[in-house]
Amino acid sequence: MTIHPKSGAKNKGKFIGLVEPNSIGPGDVKTGIDHLKELGITHVHLLPSFDHYSIDETNLNTPQYNWGYDPKNYNVPEGSYATDPYDATVKIKEFKQMVKAFHDQGIGVIRMLFITILEKRGNHYLIKRFQGIITVTTKMVVIQMRPRAATKRHPKDP
């Protein structure tokens, strides 16, 4: 929504960039939160925004992409979406600032939770995946979990 060089956002690809008011892209098209309000949406669904293993926050000048399905620290905002990935306080404050800005505009926030647990059973690994939805409100957090399991043979096993 904001990472494109012509998005008009000052904080491109950041939590706070998503809620910057008055950002305009090519053709005078509203971007960020103004675009979402213009669409009339009631909720925004943030794909995993937790800290990811595969994003190197010390090397953000190199393009990196991740769907977020390799969470490292649950409930810790991903540093690459903060203006200072090294400062945990900044990550948390900017995430909260983004959620508050959505709420101030009457837009609910839904976060995706994806947990993968790997268990070795003999020559097989059992991959347990739990996919859930976290609804963030000003007064409570609601978590709905839906388990999924699959058995797979490890590639190194005969």
TrEMBL record:
Keywords attached to this entry: Hydrolase
A GO molecular-function descriptor: hydrolase activity
Record-linked InterPro entries: GH
Gene3D superfamilies: Glycosidases
Entry protein name: Alpha-amylase family glycosyl hydrolase
Organism this protein belongs to: Maribacter litopenaei
